[in-house]
Amino acid sequence: MTSIRETIHNHAMNGSPPAEAKYSSLVIPSLAWVIVAVIYTFRRSINSAGFPIDPYYSILFAIPILLILAKKFPFADLGIRLGKPLTGLFFVLLLPGILFLRYYLTGANLVLPENLGILIPGSIAEEFFFRGYLQESLQKTLGTGYSFFLTNLLFALLHFIKGYSLAPTLVVGVIGFYFSLAKDQKQGGGSLIYPTISHILYNIVSSGVSR
């Protein structure tokens, strides 16, 4: 009969972690998302209590940074690098460009939103957490496809908690998948920079349209 120690050794030699290790590696990312969801749920109450900065954006930045400082998540995995600029630029412009063209062809006017101070840090914070930290953490355990799916399921679910109805929530999930692809090493730009800029531009276009 093979002992537990031998089983773990065999898994290590084969390059695949034992099931216990795989499941335990999902605990921290899952708990991180729950914390984010709870903070968002009580966002207004926390602000009303005198919290000096937006608690939702703060926690999106704080969790990955604390895990990096605790050496539970490598800084390099965030993907803050040049990557593949031409592919990255394609992803930066494609989705916002399609949205802009859609509104332009329907006679809408694009104006610069007044809430850029919310849109820009919010976009950066969500990409920092979801595509920078969560996606990379899940990908190590689940692989690319499942990590994309779960990351953007949780991304969409958080927007549902924000008050989005079902159809817009599903759209958010699809858009999130696009951002995941934009960051991907093989199919995308290989950097967090590109989905972040694309996210910012998308939010500016979608918030700056008036008829």
What's this model, at a glance?
This protein is an all-alpha fold and 211 residues long. It has helices at 4-14, 19-24, 27-41, 43-48, 55-69, 85-105, 116-142, 144-162, 166-183, 193-207, and strands spanning 109-110, 209-210. The chain has one domain.
CA radius of gyration is: 19 Å
Helical content band: over 70%
Estimate the strand proportion.
Answer: under 5%
- Tell me the span between the first and last alpha carbons: 73 Å
Which whole number gives the mean pLDDT? 89
> How many strands appear in the DSSP assignment?
2
Anisotropy-based shape:
globular
Query: Unreliable stretches, pLDDT < 50, 5 or more residues?
Result: 1-16
Count of folded domains: 1
Q: Taking strands numbered 1, 2, ... along the chain, how are they ordered across the largest sheet?
A: 1-2
Per DSSP, the total helix count is: 10
**H/E series:** HHHHHHEHHHHE
SS content category: mainly alpha
Report the sheet with the most strands, covering strand number, pairing sense and barrel closure: 2 strands, antiparallel
Descriptive terms for the model:
about 210 residues, mainly alpha, two-stranded antiparallel ribbon, 10 helices, 2 strands, about 0% strand, disordered N terminus
Description:
With 211 residues, the protein is mostly helical. It has one domain (4-210). The protein contains ten helices and two strands, in the order ααααααβααααβ. It has a two-stranded antiparallel sheet. It starts with a helix and ends with a strand.
